[in-house]
Amino acid sequence: METPLIIVFSVISILALIPTVIFYTKSHRLKDLRTLRLGRLTIGFLASLFVLFNGIMGIIFAANYNYHREVIVVILIIELALFLIPAFMISFVVPIGIVILTVKMWRRESHSLANLILPAIMLVFFLVDWIYIRVSSLSEGWLWLQLLSYIYPILAFYLLWQFIVFFFSSWTYGRRFRKKFAKYHVILGSGLINGQHVSPLLANRIRAGLALASPETILVFSGGQGKDEQLSEALAMQKYAIEQLGFPEERTMVEDQSRTTFENLKFSSVLI
Length: 272
Known about the structure:
Elements: H1 2-29, H2 37-63, H3 69-108, H4 117-134, H5 143-149, H6 151-175, E1 184-188, H7 200-211, E2 218-222, H8 233-243, E3 252-255, H9 261-271
Parallel strand pairs: 1-2, 2-3
Helix pairs in contact: 1-2, 2-6
């Protein structure tokens, strides 16, 4: 019995090894790491590696099942946990974390509608979940809603997939080699407290730019002036870096015309 199992697991391992190498090679040859393709390649690599690992373990355990029975149980429990923990995180921990983060941002940052977008989306999803659970008990007069409910699982799965891809894209991008020191560091602005003071979030962003700066690095502060702000975000950041952090003024540049992230990059590139 062991020989057929060893052959089966060997075939599985070989078939899994091929996509593992392909996904790994493609991800490391990817020129632009700022795309979601990096996340999809990472997911493909990890999935293939998972199958490859189980195939190799299957070969080892098939040779002497009785001897490795306890080890097999432990590995299966660990693998089950690897699937259940992310599901638990997405279902419970992430929504609770979003609520806590929103409260902190509302207390520490500017009171803007932008800070309420994410929790509002979460509330909408909870509401839709509640409707989806109860839709089967509705009368025939709600047939249109029952038909519409069939679309929800597809949409939910699509959004979950995009979230996972985005997560792995960000996670992989943060761990790939990047140039630590650059001549220019562009620091993007955000809403000012009382229209003139740098918020804790923005202050941390400035500190991060300074921490990675070399003695020759020039900081480019990018951010225009909002309707409720007394000065541009760029000037507020420059003032904070000079007065609070002691950064040399001659190594700073100000871009104070941008209104969007695209304009941040567009106008800053002109200065650089």
